[in-house]
Design goal:
338 residues; 12 helices; 3-stranded antiparallel beta sheet; alpha+beta; 7-stranded antiparallel beta sheet
């Protein structure tokens, strides 16, 4: 019964992915990984979430029932007929019929959110900020969802340090109605559309972050400056984006996002100069301390994947709370495959 809720093309792709995860087989290529991510995100599931939780499920019927439950049941959320038809077309690399293409066209007709000067800044520095991308009410609701998930209360500092619902500063919260506001906000979609120069976008299903101030017995958990991709001096880094939304006001000392502006332009030559056997992340941290990028609640911060980035110790008085997300075209529409 649960399998009947899925489009046949989606069902076949999901069955293949579940088998691959169970057998601990890595994706055969970057493109296959991107296609698998699109499949999961199109079904409202996070990549890390699927890899950890799918292994605990007894059979494929249970996997389908689990995904249906995350979406509120068959016909809801990402299992709505139109959403499934769009994902099915993308998996097959087919053009969308008019009723599905209308959403992309509406986004294409929307006024730009970034000026030419801001886009020049993006090209030079590798990051860009869209102020007040999310309104105050949506930020408050999402921050409250994170607090509930980590079983903490804003007014009780001692409650901020329970790690049962976190991995370091990462809160393993993927699905909550309050997180959908950012994932569906037209201004946020337009921001990514401008950077990708494409209006057909899928939104990632990412976790959040809850980063409380340091105190005795609770040192900074990281992550320090790093890249979220494999680096090789022989392979150029393809264009990709990453992003977060500050859900609360975050001054520099409150564990703000940190990066090395402009480093994406130096990355290829820098990698070629590294001695064999040196780990790039560790070498980078011996050379660079990074620059914090503070923000207000609702600010969207997007950076290029080639830009080294991380967090920093929170020496402020409140937790840093952010929602991670990304938007990108289907793999066959990405620049590297054109």
């Amino acid at each position: 019964m649960s399998q009947a809720a899925f489009d046949p093309v989606i069902l076949q792709a999901l069955r293949q992915l579940w088998g691959q995860v169970r057998e601990a087989r890595p994706a055969a290529s970057r493109r296959q990984q991107l296609e698998q991510d699109m499949l999961l995100f199109g079904l409202g599931v996070g990549r890390e979430q699927f890899q950890s939780e799918a292994l605990q499920l007894a059979d494929f019927d249970t996997v389908c029932a689990w995904i249906a439950h995350l979406n509120g049941g068959p016909g809801h959320g990402c299992l709505h007929d139109l959403s499934q038809r769009r994902l099915s077309c993308a998996l097959q690399q087919k053009d969308y019929p008019p009723e599905l293409a209308a959403e992309c066209e509406t986004l294409a007709q929307m006024a730009p959110v970034f000026s030419n000067a801001e886009l020049d800044f993006w090209q030079e520095h590798g990051y860009i900020v869209l102020p007040q991308a999310l309104d105050a009410a949506a930020c408050a609701a999402a921050a409250a969802a994170v607090y509930r998930h980590v079983q903490a209360k804003p007014e009780q500092a001692d409650s901020w340090y329970d790690l049962r619902k976190r991995q370091g500063i990462m809160a393993t919260l993927f699905q909550d109605p309050a997180l959908q506001a950012a994932r569906t906000a037209p201004r946020i979609q337009k921001a990514f559309a401008q950077l990708w120069e494409c209006h057909d976008l899928y939104c990632s299903i990412d976790h959040c972050s809850f980063h409380p101030p340091e105190r005795e017995g609770y040192p900074f958990q990281g992550p320090y400056l790093h890249w979220d991709l494999a680096l090789s001096p022989d392979n150029p880094v393809p264009f990709d984006t990453q992003a977060l939304i500050y859900l609360t006001d975050t001054p520099a000392e409150q564990g703000a996002f940190t990066c090395v502006p402009g480093f994406q332009h130096r990355l290829a030559d820098w990698l070629k100069r590294l001695p064999q056997g040196i780990i790039p992340d560790e070498e980078l941290r011996s050379e660079e301390s990074g620059m914090p990028i503070p923000g207000q609640a609702g600010d969207l911060l997007i950076w290029q994947a080639a830009l080294p980035h991380g967090s920093r110790p929170n020496t402020g008085e409140s937790p840093r709370i952010v929602q991670y997300l990304n938007m990108a075209p289907p793999p066959y529409k990405r620049r590297e495959y054109q």
